Each structure stands twice: as structure tokens, then as C-alpha cells.
Amino acid sequence: MKKKIISNTIIFLVILLFVNGFKIIFGSNNSLVGVTIIISILVLMQEDLTKSLSSNLIKLLFMNLISGVFSNIATHNMYLGLILNFSILLLIGYSLTSKLNKVMVVPFGLQYLFMLYTPVTGSDFTKRLVGLATGALLIMLVQLIIYKGSKNNKVEDNKVENTINNESNSFNEDKKENEYIKLFNKFNIHHVRGAYAIRIALLTTIAVFLVDYFNLAQGRWIVYTIFSLTELYSEHCRIRSKQRLQGTVIGIIIIMLLFTVIKDSAIRGLIVLLGGYLDTYTTNYRDKIICVTMSVVASVSLTNGTITTAIERVGYICVGIILALLADKLVFNKKLEYREKLI
């Protein structure tokens, strides 16, 4: 336990130092980009990208820069944003799920959404693009440090690749294949990844548009919820929806109880950091949402009022959960039974 506390504390301090350093260099308006870059670095440490170093660096640079440009344009024109948001989220949703999980989708998708809701202009936009390019370079630098001279586990890679290929083949043998499956086959699109990419791009894009159209002050919480709950498989969506609601309610109750006792603004501000630190110990989605909710609600409550923030948070997240569950039922639904056929 002692080692875990030390390692988690070190990781948390590194994240704080990185984000603050990024903020100093690229400006306070780009601090959230720093958050997503350090998350990307940590997440991608699980993957060996050095096997195709130049190719992966180009892909990362392209992904980051196009996200920065598209989000900036979409922010200033919500109708053009329908096309741009759908395009970039479709790209993220499909290209980053090659191992049939959304581990890599989360940091890059959230990075795009964060930029969408923290628009910048002039020199700040230039700094944002430079920061995004720097982020891609830092990811590969960390990769080189970690995987330099290491032997690639080709057996494991082949197992993953074969699983994905077999999964596609199992769908091809389904006698009940519908029109969209036939279309996916025609263009050699992986069924699960394609369905997920279209679902997350379509629903998130519509949510962004409606929030913008109705000018909902904290409506971005609907967007973040929909993005987070859209899964490759239906069962995961239902489980995470329940956990997100539980985590949100528990987190809000904790903050309301703490703020009833704690009146000092400085101490309340420390709770924002406490939520982030406790998040390093979470092992499931519900507990992670409790910590995230504590940080977000504590932060917004400092200027918006605790009760008002709590009501808005629960309300918007409930809307997001309902929409995510509806979309999961109606738009290219995929169940785990498809994958279980391969085991």
C-alpha cells in the first residue's frame, strides 16, 4: 500500500507539473489541452508505437493538428460544425479502436471536445497548434524512452489481429446480415468498429449542435456524458450508464456535505485537487466518476453555487444517459454475443 501511495502521488505531481508547465508556455486558455496530452502520454505507454516510428508520429501529428483546426472552425459555425465534428469523431472512433476497445479513443476524443468548448483566437490559437504538435512529439519521445531496445511481443500482436479478423469473418457468415453489414463488407469496414464510429460521431455531433443551438450554459456535460457512454458493445453502455449515474449522485452528495461544513473558499478549492488525486486510486468507472464529479462540482460551485451546480449536473447527465441508451438501442446495436462466438 505504501508503494502505491508513493507511486500515485508521484504520478499526480507529474501531471500537475506538466499541466502547469504547459499552461505557462502555451497560455491558460490551452491548459485543458495540456491535460489531454499528459493523459494521452500515460494511456499510450501501454502500446509500443516505435515499431512504425515515423508512420505513427505522422498519424499523431495529423490527428492533433486536424483536431485543433476543425474544433476552431466548428466553434464559430455550428452548422459547418455538423460536418466537421462528425468527420473528426468518425476518424477517431474508427482509427483508434483497432484492438476492439476505446482506451485510445477517450483522450483524443476528449481533447477535441475540450477544444470545442474552450475556443481561442489569434496568438492563442497559434500556441494551441504548436502545443498539439509538441504533444505528438512528446508522446513519441516517451515511447522511445520506454521501448528502446525492447523486444516486440509479436505473438500477442498476432493474437489480437487474428481475433479481429476472425470477428469480421464471423459476421460475414451471419445469414441475417442486414443492409449496413452488406455496405460495410463492400468497403471492407470492420463491423463493430464501423458501427461504433458512426454511433459515437453521429450522437455526439447532434448533442453538440443542440447544446449550441439552445445555448445551454453547462450543456457540455450532456456531450461529455454521451461521448463517454457510447461503447463498442451494448452491454457495456448499460453498465457504464448505471455507474455514471451512481457516481454522479454520490460525488454530489459528498460535495454538498463537505461544503455545508467548509465555508472557506481556499479550502474548497483544495477539494478540486483532492478529487483529482483520489482518482489515481480508482479501479472502476463508478469510483472514477465520483472523483471527477467532486472536482467538477467543487470547481463550478465556487462561482455558481453548490445547489444550482448539483441540480444542473444531475439533470444534464441524466439527459446524456437517456440519449446514449436510446442511441445504443437504435443505431447499429452490437452485443457481446458477437465476440463471444470466437471464444
From TrEMBL:
<feature type="transmembrane region" description="Helical">
    <location>
        <begin position="5"/>
        <end position="22"/>
    </location>
</feature>
<feature type="transmembrane region" description="Helical">
    <location>
        <begin position="103"/>
        <end position="122"/>
    </location>
</feature>
<keyword id="KW-0472">Membrane</keyword>
<dbReference type="InterPro" id="IPR049453">
    <property type="entry name" value="Memb_transporter_dom"/>
</dbReference>
<feature type="transmembrane region" description="Helical">
    <location>
        <begin position="196"/>
        <end position="214"/>
    </location>
</feature>
<feature type="transmembrane region" description="Helical">
    <location>
        <begin position="79"/>
        <end position="96"/>
    </location>
</feature>
<keyword id="KW-1133">Transmembrane helix</keyword>
<feature type="transmembrane region" description="Helical">
    <location>
        <begin position="249"/>
        <end position="277"/>
    </location>
</feature>
<keyword id="KW-0812">Transmembrane</keyword>
<feature type="domain" description="Integral membrane bound transporter">
    <location>
        <begin position="206"/>
        <end position="327"/>
    </location>
</feature>
<feature type="transmembrane region" description="Helical">
    <location>
        <begin position="313"/>
        <end position="332"/>
    </location>
</feature>
<feature type="transmembrane region" description="Helical">
    <location>
        <begin position="128"/>
        <end position="147"/>
    </location>
</feature>
<feature type="transmembrane region" description="Helical">
    <location>
        <begin position="57"/>
        <end position="73"/>
    </location>
</feature>
<dbReference type="Pfam" id="PF13515">
    <property type="entry name" value="FUSC_2"/>
</dbReference>
<protein>
    <submittedName>
        <fullName>FUSC family protein</fullName>
    </submittedName>
</protein>
